Structure formats: structure tokens, C-alpha cells
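Researcher: Here's a chain I'd like modeled. Treat it as a single chain, no partners, no ligands.
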Amino acid sequence: MKENTKKITAMVLSLTMAIGMMTGCGSGKDSSGRKNDKLTAPEFNGNVGDTRPSADNEAIQSEEKGYYNEDVDIDINTEEYNYYAENQFLSVAEHPLSTFSTDVDTASFTNVRRMLENRQNIEPNAVRTEEFINYFNYEYEYPTGDDKIAINTELSDCPWNNDAKLMQIGLQAKDIDVQDIDSNIVFLIDVSGSMADANKLPLVTQAFAMLAENLGENDRISIVTYAGRDTIELEGESGANYETIASTLAGLTAGGSTAGAAGINTAYELAEKYFIKGGNNRVILATDGDLNVGLSSEEELKSLIEEKRDNGVFLSVLGFGMGNYKDNKLEALADNGNGNYAYIDSVEEAERVLVTEMNGTMFTVAKDAKIQVEFNPANVAYYKLVGYENRLLEDQDFEDDTKDAGDVGAAQQVTALYEIIMTDTKADSDDSKRTLKYQDDVEYPAPEKADETDLDKELLTVSVRYKEKDENESKLVDKAVKLASYVSIDEMSENMKLACAAAMFAKTLGNSEDKFTMAEIRDYAKGLHLDAEELLKMIAIYEEDYENSAINNQ
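Model: Modeled as a single isolated chain. C-alpha cells:
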């Protein structure tokens, strides 16, 4: 971006950010208006409404720059979360198949991080274990050939169950060159009165300004706001006109009630009007989820989004704020709209989601991705899926291409863990009846048969179905896991150690029966070359201010 553009950008964004100063506004476009590989974003210096003693503020700002902290009165807290009972062990004899939808959402992790940063009571229903696990990046092998997803597995001991083994499944999506893929993006922004707080609309506008910096002349941006009514603030603007986009964002103010359904309809109409064939067509909703006028129930919102998701326009949901945050509604929107869901608690998180990991957030490579694990009763007696309680599917849904499931972006990962209890008892076999790979008396499905000698060595088979972005017929990839792949807990990879630490932390804060000390969790997260910094920070906060205290029992 030219120097005068930098000055204009800093001026317009400062109008909405009385709480901080915008600096270092680099450009993501070259002189021709196309996107560069190097992505830059404005910086934010400051900390808002911190609830800790003022004597500590200077150190807090230095160590936790950019986090918005507010003193929220728990007595008037109207946040909403769905309750999901923790998965239990299932018998392989009765339930040989385990089927669930992929999930790349991370909102639960950052939302709970906000609670910890503010020293609030931790809402157990806000904790979704799979989103803690999937917040982190692992070192998985990428797919080869025409495949868009590769399956990685590891088998070791379970740190929290001496009677079980633990299996990690890691899906790695193909990375693609997005430089020549044009984007048609609609920013759908809640400007109702509940969005007036510093950690809501001002943070929203700064987050979208960072994303807009990295667009080019062939990209199109529209901005729709909704409160008492929906308003088109900007329509089909070229990404090269950053000053226009930034000044429009800077001029937004909050006030009025919330008519979210009308705004969603308008946003989809604009996305369809400026639809780019073969491009990235997406609505990005930014809200605290308080949709209190019009279609406000989860079922009504789900029905609305389901009507729109088959037209090639994807949905990303960004949650903001606290006190009246409606996680249940936002999760329902993202889960049913072919999109992803993130909670933005800081400028740094906005940069991570919309700049650093923009390809994964914005460019889908595999849609309706489902995982099905078939367990071999000769070697496995019981299993338990860790997390994914709200992503479970019926077994027959796996081969049903009309069944909606999760979407995976460029280079994104999906990680899941299973507790597995082994058996020394072999099931009877009768090849004349065999329809499952390992069992005889279940009619679904009917895969190709493998040599019986090889089957005895196998623990399970992981199968993944997904559709290419612009296709409606799914593709299948699978991988058998053999007993010989087991490694002891001392040989456990860093991938599995980090996933274990994230799962153990989530279990401790959430609705799980399993609880751990922070020292036990830290043993798996410390000393890794993988980036576990955010988890270690949260562990330290919990250890100092929550562990062995009454703060979570008030």
C-alpha cells in the first residue's frame, strides 16, 4: 500500500478504535492490484477494561497484548450454551461403527480463554473438547495425487486410562495455491445495541479491515449491517479500493434491536448477485449471537441456512463479546451453513483466523467430510470417541451424499482421539455372511474383503468421505491401523502429546468425569517444538487462580 493510503487507513480506523491506535498498516497487494504472498495486518497496543489490580496492568499488557477484558456481572450473564453429555464407551459387538462429522471450529477454545483471562467462572457447557484439540497445528503428512485429504494415525497408551490404548486420527487437507482464486465476500455485521462494547463492533471492524488489506482488484466486497433493519453499506466493491472499504467499516455504529434473519437473507442475495464461478464465495457473519428479533430460535436459523447452503456460497461465523454471548445459535449457523466458527477475543486472534490462516478459513477444499471408524472385534472390545458429541452421525449417513457434514479448508487439519479397550477374545467368522470388513451379522456397509490373515492383524479401519468443492458426489479414502503400529507412551510423538494435553485440559474444565491437575497436563504440553504456547498460558492462569480455589464453585 502506498504511504498516503497508510495514513488514510490509520485515520479512518482510529475513528472506531478510541481504545487503541492502529499502526503498521502494510498492504497485501502489489502494484498491479493482485494479492501478494506476504500478509500484513495493523497492530493494536493496549488492554481494555482489565479486571485485575491496576498495579499488574503494565505487566499484563506486555504479556497479553490485545486481549479485551471486562468485569462482567455474573448475576446478569445471559450467555447461552448447549449441553452435551460426554461420550461413553461402546461395545464393538453391538456398535462396530463410529461415525461423525469433521470439525475445524475453534470457537470453544478462544471463548474459554476469554473467561480465563477475565478470571470468570468457567461455563462447563462452553467447553467442546474437539475444538480445544483442533485449535493447535500438528505435523501430519499431506495427501498425494488427486486426494484432497490424507489420513494420519498413531496408537499409544492412554494417559488417563491404564486399561485403554489411545488412538489419534489426524486428517490433513491439501494445500492449494489461492493467488489466482478470486473472492466474493459479504461482511454481515451485527450493529445492534448489544454490539456497542469495545470488544465487539470496534474489534469486528478492525478484524475485517485486516482481511480486506489482503484482497486484490478482482475480489469483490459487500458490507451488510443489521439491527432494527438490514442495510447495504457497500456493494460489490473491488478489493483494490481498500480506502473505501476501510472508511465504510470505520463509520459503523451500534444501536437498536437485532433482525438477524433479514440481514442473513440480504447477505446471501448479494453473494449470489456477485457470484464468481470457481471462486471463493462466502458470507462472514460477525455478531455476539443475540438474534432477538425475527427468526431467533436455533431451529428457525438452521432451516434458513440449510435453504442457502447448496448454492455455492459458504458461511463463516465469527463470535465476539461476553455477557450475552449466544454460542448455541452461532454454532448452529456454522454447522448447517457449510462453514466454520471462530470466537475472536483479541486482535491477535483476528489476525490468526483472517490473515495468518486465511487460506484454511476462506478456501474450502473438501466439503461434507465425514469420518467412519470400523473396529475389529478380534482385537477391540470397547471404544470411546473423545469429544465430537454434537457431531455424531448415524452409521448410514456415511454413504449418504445428501447428508450435510463438516467442511475443511486449504491445509486445514482435523484431529480426533479414541480410547480403545483391547480384547483377547476373537469373534466367530463366517465368510458366507460377512458384510462388514470385520463382522458377520451387520448388513451395513459392504466393502471389499481383505485377506483373513491380514484382518487378524488389524485393529480398525478409518474411512473418510468428502466432496470436492464444486461436486456433489463423495470420494472415499481409508486406512487400516494394525496392532504393529503401537508405540509405548515413552515413544509417543509430539502430535499425540499436544493432542492429549489439549484434551486433558478441556476435560478438566468441561463436563467430563476425567479431571487432572495442571502439573499432569503440563507434562504433555511442555518442551514441544510444536506451538503449545497458548495452552501453557491458560494452564498457568488456571493453576494460579482456579486450581484448589472456590472461583469455579461460586
